[in-house]
Write a sequence for this structure.
């Protein structure tokens, strides 16, 4: 139960962060990526603040045997820098650049769209998330076949 | 076109970083949205509820913010429905192949000084900027 409350709290903080920083707005994200247009540096500042705060959390974690509400820390198992990593990051970059949504802001925007279905803004979020889930499921299915 | 809002950007970024710290210190998990969503399809049943709780928080936060009277800076999507579908598919496939997105590789990976995440972040940032350049300034989309 304590773990669920912490997960919910972390999700809320994450969502508030995306909202306050305007990263929920795809136009703002595209303005950052548009280096040749009127470049908008906001996303760089979001990262510049997020990374050291997260790093402080990881540093605190190194002093502990286990997290507060789980038996063990679970760092990512994958360490390889390979073709799959680079190809995946490149495909993600194309999709991100075409629409201006990455998964977090798209989900936050979906929340807004669900709460206000008649709102004119963020109408693309449900469609984007649906397509994203299909893309993720495709990889999961292929991975499962390959492993067999 | 949207204005430079450094204080809001730094505040929002700090909140995102703090969220990653809470999820790591509380549950020992990386706050990567694509990994948390993707895990709903692949993880064991007992490993799903915390994911749903976290994602519910991400979705509820802007709604709560708006109800409290805060401005939620939403914006109409510039992309056509076809482009939204293509973009969504690419983001879904790409983040699962590459094992992360802006949050998992970009925020958490860089904070952990992971060379793998630094590589992924460099690639997706550069490719996204190139995509916007081609789309807006070459093809005139």
């Amino acid at each position: 139960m304590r773990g669920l409350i912490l997960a919910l709290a972390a999700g809320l903080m994450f969502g508030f962060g995306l909202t306050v920083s305007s990263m929920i707005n795809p136009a703002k994200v595209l303005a950052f990526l548009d280096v040749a247009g009127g470049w908008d540096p906001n996303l760089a500042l979001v990262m510049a603040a997020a990374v050291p705060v997260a790093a402080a959390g990881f540093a605190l974690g190194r002093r502990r045997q286990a997290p507060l509400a789980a038996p063990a820390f679970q760092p990512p198992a994958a360490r390889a820098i390979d073709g799959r990593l680079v190809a995946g990051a490149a495909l993600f970059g194309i999709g991100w650049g075409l629409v201006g949504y990455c998964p977090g802001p798209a989900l936050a925007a979906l929340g807004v769209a669900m709460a206000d279905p008649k709102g004119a803004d963020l109408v693309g979020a449900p469609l984007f998330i649906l397509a994203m889930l299909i893309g993720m499921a495709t990889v999961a299915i292929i991975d499962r076949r390959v492993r067999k | 076109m949207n204005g430079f809002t450094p204080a809001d950007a730094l505040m929002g970024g700090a909140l995102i970083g703090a969220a990653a710290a809470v999820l790591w210190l509380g549950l020992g998990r990386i706050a990567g949205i694509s990994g948390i969503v993707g895990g709903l399809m692949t993880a064991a049943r007992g490993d799903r509820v915390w994911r749903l709780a976290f994602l519910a928080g991400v979705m509820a936060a802007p709604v709560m913010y708006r109800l409290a009277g805060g401005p939620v800076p939403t914006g109409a999507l510039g992309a056509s429905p076809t482009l939204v579908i293509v973009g969504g598919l690419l983001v879904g496939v790409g983040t699962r192949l590459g094992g992360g997105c802006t949050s998992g590789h970009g925020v958490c990976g860089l904070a952990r000084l992971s060379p793998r995440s630094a590589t992924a972040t460099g690639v997706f940032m550069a490719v996204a900027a190139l995509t916007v350049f081609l789309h807006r300034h070459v093809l005139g989309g």
